[in-house]
Write a structure and sequence with these properties.
This protein is 28% helix and 24% strand. By secondary structure, the chain is of the alpha/beta class. α8 (282-288) links the parallel β13 (270-274) and β14 (291-294).
Length: 431
Amino acid sequence: MRMLKSITAATLAFALSGVVSGTVSAEDIAITGGKAFTNGGSGEVANATILVSDGKITSVTAGGAVPSGYRVIDASGKWVTAGFMAADTSLGLTEVSLSGGINDATAPKEKGAIGVSVVPALNPANIFIPNTRIEGVTRAMTRMTNSGDMWLGLGAVLKLTDGDMVANEKAFLAIDLDEGSANEVGGSRAVLWSKLNEKFQGAKDKIEAAAKKDDGDTKDGDKKDAKRPSAADATLKAVLSGDMPIYALVNRKADILQLIAFQKRFGIRVILGGAAEAWMVADMLAASGISVVLDPTANLPGNFDALGQTSAAAGRLHAAGVKVAFIPPGTHNSRLVVQNAGIAVSMGMPWAAAMDALTVNPAEMFGVGDSYGKLAAGMDADVVVWDGDPLEVMSSPDAVLIAGVDIPLVSRQTKLRDRYKDLDRSPAFDR
C-alpha cells in the first residue's frame, strides 16, 4: 500500500474551509523544477515549468519564467505527470459493501437498459472519491456492473472533484457478453449472440429506412406527429454511426473472436473489458483497432472463460500494438490502479507504455482525449507532483491538481489516521 503522508493543520483547515464542499475555484499556479512527462510516459522535460490558469495548462517549458501573481509549487527533485485514470470502476455509484442502502451500480430487475445513463445516480460525496484522488488518480470511468440481461447502459467519465464531476456523460454503451450474462439471456451463448445481432441489425435497418424516407421532400405537416426517438434508439444510432463505442465485458477467446466479427459486420468501435484471453488474439485485435482494458494482477482463472489469464497479458498486447488501459482491484481500491500499472511493468510491459495506459490511452478510448491525459497547453490541468517514480509502490503524491484546483491530500482515512496515531497510552495498557 502506498504511504499516506501526514497532513498539516493548515492543509486540513484549508480542506474543511471549502474544497470538500466544492467551493474553491482554480487559481494561477506554477509548478517548477520537476521532471515532467508530458505525453503519458514520454515527452520528458527536465526542470519543467508548468503554468496553470483558469483550470487549464497554458504552457510547459524547460526552466521557464514564472509570471507575476502565480502561486509556486516547488517540484524540484520530483516527478510530474498528468493525473491518472482508473479505466473501469463504479465510483460515485456504490458505497460501503454490505450496507443497507441501494447499490446504484446494479439493476438486477431491469432488462434492456440500453439508453440508461448512470449520471443521475452519481454521488459527488461518495467516500471513495477522496481516497482515490489523493493517490494521483484524478479521473475514472464509471458504469453499472449488472442488470437483468446483457445491457448495462451508458457509462461515464468522471473528474474526481466535489462539484461538476461529469467529463463525458455518454462515453460508451456497456454490454456484458460473458458467461453470467449468457446465463441470464436464454441460458446459452447461442441465444445471447443471436439476440445481440438481432438487436443491432434491427437498429441498422430502422436507421436506413428512416434515411430513405427523409428524402428532403417531406412536408412540415407530415412531421408534426413524428415520435421522438427513444433513449435506446438514440444510443444504438450513436454506436452504429461510430460516435460512441461499446464496452464489451468478455474474457473467452472464442467470444472475443465473435466480437471481432461483430465489429466488422456493423462497422462499430469496440473496447474490451476484462479480456482474460485477449492476448491470444493480440494481432487480430491490433488489426481491428480494438482496445483492451484489463487488470494486470489477474493471473489465475476464476472460471472456464478465463483459463488463459496471465499477468503478462498487458505486455503482450502492447507488443502487438493493442492500446491498453488498466482496471483497478475493485472500485473501493480504485487508487491501486497505479500499483497495478507497476505490476504490469514487472511482468514485461515497458514503463512508458504503462504510463500511457494510465493517461493518454483511456482518455482516447473514452472520448476525453482532447481535454485530458497530457501536460500540454489547452488541456485540463490534471497534474500530479510525485516524490519519486509514480509506479514505485512507495512513491506518493505531494500535490494533486484537478482541473486547476489544488486538492488537499485529505480523506476520511487520513483524518482517522491523524486522529488516533499519537494517542497517549494509559498505564493500564503498558503491559
